[in-house]
Design brief:
The complex is a heterodimer of chains A (369) and B (282).
Chain A (H helix, E strand, L loop, with lengths): L1 H12 L4 H9 L7 H46 L1 H13 L13 H38 L13 H32 L1 H14 L4 H15 L8 H26 L3 H9 L4 H39 L4 H11 L4 H30 L8
Helix pairs in contact in A: 2-3, 3-4, 5-13, 6-7, 6-9, 6-11, 8-9, 8-11, 9-11, 11-12, 11-13, 12-13
Chain B lengths: L3 E10 L6 E11 L4 E6 L5 H9 L6 E6 L2 E2 L7 E4 L11 H12 L5 H14 L15 H14 L4 E5 L7 H18 L2 E6 L2 H7 L2 E5 L11 E2 L8 H4 L3 H24 L14 H4 L2
Parallel strand pairs in B: 3-8, 3-9, 6-7, 7-8
Antiparallel strand pairs in B: 1-2, 1-4, 4-5, 9-10
The chains are: A mainly alpha (369), B alpha/beta (282).
C-alpha cells in the first residue's frame, strides 16, 4: 500500500500522472466512477495514437502511389511501354533503390528502420568491444611508452549519436547556466546594469542559431588556430549555450529584481550583508522564475542542437539526419523519421527532468508569506 | 531627554505635482520602558511612521532621535514585528529565527545561537513546530514566530506594526497576553501601531491617535492609568477604562465626521416634478 502511494506521488510530481491510472488498471483497483477517468486518460490518448498512425499510413501510401504513377508515366512517355513495364516491375519488387519512390515512409517502414538501427548498434558495439579487447595489450604498452593509445575510429552507431547529442546539449546548457544565472543576478540587482545591458539582450536574443554558429565558428577557429584537434564539438556546444541562455538571463534578472518587498525589508531590518542578502533572501525567492528560465533554456538548447550539429558537422543526431538525407539510400527517409521521434521523446523527457528538479528545489509561491 | 524622539517630522512621497504629504508635523517622545500605542484609521500613514522610526525610510523634514542620536538606517537595537509576518517561506521556523540571531550576535558559537533559538521558540510555545515551514503554520503561529524572531535579537525597543491585524479575535486576545507577558519580563520600550482602540488601551501606557492622512499628524495623547497586570473582563467595568475608551473613540469619530464635512460639495438638483399620471391615462 505504501509503495503504491509513493508511485502515485512521484509520478504526479514528475507530471506523469497518467501512469497511476495504468497501475490501477493492472492491479484491478479500478472503481466504477473511475471508468470515465480511465476512458479519458488511457483510452482516448491510445485511440488518438492509433488514429495518428492510421492517417500517417494512409498519407504515405497515397504519396507513394502518386510518385510511383509519375515514374511509370514518365518512362512511358519518354521511353515507351517496355521501359514503363520495367519500372513498374522494379517498383513492385522493391529491391533496387534507384527506381523506388522517394517519399514519406510508412509507419511500418519506420519501425523496420528503427529495428535495423538497433541491430546496427549491436553490431558496432560488438565490433568496438572486440577492437578494445584486441588492442588492450598493445595500448598498455603504448601508454607505458608515453604514446597515445589507439582508439576505435569506426562509424558511430545511432545510439552513440544520441549520447553524443546529449553530451553536447548538456555542455551547452551548463555554459548557458554559468553565464546567464550570475549575469542575470547582477542585472537584476542593479538598475544601472539593467539599462546598460538591455540593448544587448534585446538585440542578441532574437538572433537565429545559424548565425550564432557562424559567429562562434569565426572566433573559435582563430583561437584554436594551428591546433589539429577537432573543434566541431567545442563550436557546437558553445553555439548551443549562447543560443539558449537568453530565457534564463531574462528570467533570472526579472526574478531577482522583483523580490517581494517584505523580504527585502526583513533583510534590511536584520541588517544582512550583501552576500547574505543575495544567498539567503534574493536567490531563494527568485528560484521559481530562474527554473522556469532554465526549463525554457534546456528545451531551446535541444531544439537548436539539431540545426547546429548539422552545420558544425559535429557528431550527433543532427549530423545523423543530415547524412541520411544526403545518403539517399532506400531506408534513409525512414531513418530520418526515427530520428525525429527520438528527438521528440528525448526533448519531452528533458522537460520532465527539469520540471522534477524545479518542484524539488523551489517553494510553492502560492503558499508563500 | 526622551528615549525616542520625533521632532517636526514631515514625510512626502513623489515629486513636483505628484507630491503628497503623508505625515506632517509629527512630534512624539517615548520614555525608556514605556509602552506606547498609536491608533489610527487604515491608510492614515501608520506604516510610514513605523518605517521612519525603524530606519527603513528617512523623513523629508525633521529628525528622529533614538537615545539622542539621529536614526540612520536600521539597527538591531530596534526590533520590528511586521504586519504581514514577513517570514521567509523557504526557511523553517528555527532557520528563520536563527538567521536573525546570527546577525545580531555574530561572535557567538553555533551551539550558543541554537540555544537562543530554542529558548525563544519555546517562549512562544512553538517547540513542536520548530522544523516546520511557515506555510504549514496558522496565522497566529506565524505571527508568534515573527515575535520570537524580533525578540531573539534582544532589541532595546520593539516596534510593532499592526502585528495582530490579520488574526481572528480569539487568537488576537491570546497573542496580546503573550506579548504583554514577554514585555513584562524585562520592560523594554515598546511602540504598538494598531487600528483597534481596545487593544491599545489593554496593552499600552499611553495612546496617541493618528489623524488620518494626507497630512496625518498626531492628536492629543491619552494616559491609561490602569494597574498591570490588566484583566480583560474586569477592565470592561473599570470606570477609567470606559472614560478613556469613549474619549478616544469620540475623538476618532469626530475626525471621521470632519473628513466627511470637508468633502462636501453642493449638487444642485434640477427642479422636476412627476407628471400627473392620473390625467395622462384619462
Amino acid at each position: 500500500m505504501k509503495h503504491s502511494i509513493t508511485l502515485g506521488k512521484v509520478s504526479k510530481f514528475m507530471g506523469l500522472g497518467f501512469l497511476t491510472t495504468f497501475k490501477d488498471l493492472f492491479t484491478g483497483k479500478l472503481e466504477k466512477e473511475d471508468f470515465k477517468n480511465f476512458l479519458r486518460k488511457v483510452v482516448v490518448p491510445l485511440a488518438s495514437i492509433f488514429l495518428f498512425i492510421g492517417l500517417w499510413h494512409a498519407g504515405s501510401k497515397s504519396l507513394y502511389n502518386i510518385e510511383a504513377d509519375f515514374r511509370i508515366n514518365k518512362a512511358l512517355e519518354e521511353q515507351g511501354q517496355v521501359a514503363a513495364d520495367a519500372v513498374a516491375a522494379c517498383i513492385a519488387l522493391g529491391e533496387d533503390s534507384s527506381c523506388q519512390p522517394n517519399t514519406l515512409p510508412s509507419p511500418a517502414q519506420v519501425w523496420g528502420s528503427y529495428k535495423s538501427l538497433l541491430r546496427d548498434h549491436n553490431i558496432i558495439s560488438a565490433d568496438k568491444a572486440a577492437f578494445i579487447e584486441k588492442t588492450a595489450v598493445l595500448n598498455e604498452k603504448r601508454v607505458a611508452d608515453g604514446k597515445d593509445p589507439i582508439v576505435y575510429t569506426g562509424r558511430p552507431s545511432f545510439v552513440d549519436q544520441i549520447f553524443r547529442s546529449l553530451q553536447t546539449v548538456f555542455a551547452g546548457f551548463l555554459l548557458a547556466l554559468l553565464i546567464a544565472v550570475p549575469l542575470g543576478i547582477f542585472i537584476g540587482l542593479s538598475p544601472t546594469l539593467k539599462s546598460s545591458f538591455n540593448w544587448f539582450i534585446q538585440i542578441f536574443k532574437p538572433v537565429s542559431p545559424v548565425v550564432w554558429y557562424l559567429l562562434v565558428f569565426m572566433i573559435v577557429k582563430t583561437l584554436l588556430i594551428g591546433s589539429s584537434e577537432d573543434s566541431s564539438f567545442t563550436i557546437s556546444f558553445i553555439s548551443v549555450g549562447l543560443c539558449s541562455m537568453w530565457a534564463t538571463l531574462v528570467n533570472t534578472a526579472m526574478g531577482v529584481s522583483s523580490v517581494d518587498k517584505d523580504y527585502i525589508n526583513v533583510a534590511k531590518v536584520l541588517k544582512l550583508g550583501t552576500f547574505q542578502k543575495i544567498f539567503k533572501v534574493v536567490l531563494p525567492s527568485s528560484l521559481p522564475l530562474i527554473f522556469t528560465g532554465l526549463k525554457i533554456t534546456l528545451s531551446v538548447a535541444w531544439m537548436v542542437l539539431i540545426a547546429i550539429e548539422l552545420l558544425a558537422q559535429s557528431p550527433g543526431l543532427g549530423l545523423f539526419v543530415w547524412e541520411e538525407f544526403q545518403n539517399g539510400a532506400n531506408d534513409s527517409n525512414a531513418k530520418i523519421i526515427v530520428a525525429m521521434f527520438v528527438i521528440g521523446i528525448i526533448g519531452f523527457l528533458l522537460d520532465r527532468l527539469m520540471l522534477t528538479i524545479q518542484n524539488w528545489v523551489s517553494f510553492d509561491k502560492t503558499d508563500a508569506i | 531627554m526622551a528615549y525616542l524622539e520625533l521632532n517636526n517630522i514631515y514625510k512626502t512621497y513623489g515629486q513636483g505635482e505628484n507630491e503628497t504629504e503623508v505625515l506632517s508635523n509629527i512630534n512624539l517622545s517615548i520614555e525608556e520602558g514605556e509602552f506606547v500605542a498609536i491608533v489610527g484609521f487604515t491608510g492614515s500613514g501608520k506604516t510610514t511612521l513605523v518605517n521612519l522610526i525603524n530606519g527603513l525610510l528617512e523623513p523629508t523634514k525633521g529628525e528622529v532621535l533614538f537615545k539622542g542620536e539621529p536614526v540612520q538606517g536600521t539597527s538591531h537595537e530596534r526590533g520590528v514585528i511586521f504586519q504581514n509576518y514577513s517570514l521567509l517561506p523557504w526557511l523553517t521556523v528555527g532557520q528563520n529565527i536563527f538567521m536573525a540571531v546570527k546577525e545580531a550576535f555574530p561572535k557567538k558559537s553555533k551551539t550558543e545561537l541554537n540555544t537562543i533559538v530554542a529558548d525563544y521558540v519555546d517562549m512562544v510555545s512553538l517547540t513542536p513546530a520548530i522544523n516546520k515551514r511557515p506555510k504549514e503554520l496558522s496565522g497566529g503561529m506565524r505571527q508568534r514566530v515573527a515575535v520570537a524572531r524580533a525578540l531573539a535579537m534582544k532589541p532595546e525597543m520593539i516596534i510593532m506594526d499592526e502585528p495582530l491585524g490579520a488574526l481572528d479575535a480569539l487568537t488576537r486576545g491570546n497573542l496580546q497576553d503573550e506579548i504583554l507577558n514577554i514585555w513584562g519580563k524585562d520592560k523594554r520600550t515598546a511602540l504598538l501601531i494598531t487600528n483597534d482602540v481596545d487593544e491599545g488601551i489593554y496593552m499600552a501606557d499611553r495612546i496617541i491617535p493618528l489623524r488620518p492622512g494626507p497630512n496625518a499628524t498626531l492628536g492629543p495623547e491619552f494616559k491609561i492609568d490602569i494597574e498591570r497586570p490588566r484583566d480583560k473582563t474586569e477592565m470592561n467595568d473599570n470606570a477609567n477604562f470606559k472614560e478613556t475608551r469613549n474619549a478616544i473613540i469620540e475623538y476618532l469619530m469626530d475626525i471621521g465626521e470632519e473628513r466627511k464635512s470637508e468633502a462636501k460639495a453642493e449638487f444642485v438638483l434640477p427642479d422636476l416634478s412627476p407628471k400627473d399620471f392620473v390625467n395622462q391615462f384619462k
